Recover the amino acids of this structure.
């Protein structure tokens, strides 16, 4: 079914919407903006291979297929910015200014996690062949495992049950708008908007690396997607995925 420019494939249960999307890409070439949405996934994946926990029919679980052949591999993190901003733009309308982006690809409300994004890319001959953006958002779930003390849902924030289908349509439309900005080369706009809603932007936080813990100010994100931290008045350092952990 095509809705607002997105072809939505709806599944009751799947191992992982990202895994399903990749299987689809290997068997045929679905249209760009094809969406795989599931009520439940029993092997959901998060960043770094972490499992994603979600109660059936309570949240939003979906993946979007892109063909960003216009995008140089160096700039592949811009796709993460596109999806994160598209989601943040919509959720802020429900939950207010507390919605922010925690580098590299989590959606937060203040210091609690609403959702996460996992992007998988395929490169061919030095170009982006396809990308799958997997999204998991806590919408109506109100109880989480004790292993997830910082999880929160949109319903817990607003005190109201959310119409998930309406929200999904709004998010897809918003992501589509941000993707058009990327295709038009509006890198500066995406950079400015992404940096403006980074968790702890311009503020000091606690971080941990293999060398130990330290305090630093979040400055922004590099073109390559590395986190830029100001560790002293005249010293900045950049960190890639899994090289640094946010401690609070």
């Amino acid at each position: 079914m095509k809705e607002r420019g997105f072809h939505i494939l709806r599944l009751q249960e799947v191992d992982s919407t990202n895994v399903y999307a990749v299987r689809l890409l290997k068997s045929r070439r679905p249209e760009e903006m094809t969406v795989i949405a599931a009520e439940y996934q029993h092997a959901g994946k998060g960043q770094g291979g972490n499992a994603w926990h979600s109660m059936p029919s309570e949240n939003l679980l979906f993946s979007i297929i892109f063909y960003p052949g216009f995008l140089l591999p160096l700039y592949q993190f811009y796709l993460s910015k596109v999806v994160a901003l598209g989601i943040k733009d919509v959720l802020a309308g429900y939950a207010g200014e507390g919605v922010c982006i925690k580098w590299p690809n989590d959606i937060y409300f203040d210091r609690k996690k609403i959702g996460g994004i996992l992007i998988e890319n395929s490169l061919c001959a030095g170009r982006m062949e396809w990308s799958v953006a997997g999204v998991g958002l806590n919408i109506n779930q109100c109880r989480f495992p004790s292993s997830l003390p910082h999880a929160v849902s949109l319903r817990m924030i607003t005190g109201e049950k959310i119409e998930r289908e309406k929200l999904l349509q709004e998010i897809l439309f918003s992501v589509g708008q941000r993707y058009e900005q990327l295709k038009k080369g509006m890198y500066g706009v995406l950079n400015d908007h992404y940096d403006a809603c980074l968790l702890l932007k311009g503020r000091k936080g606690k971080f941990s690396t293999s060398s130990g813990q330290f305090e630093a100010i979040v400055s922004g994100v590099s073109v390559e997607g590395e986190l830029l931290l100001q560790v002293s008045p005249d010293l900045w350092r950049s960190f890639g995925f899994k090289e640094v952990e946010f401690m609070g």
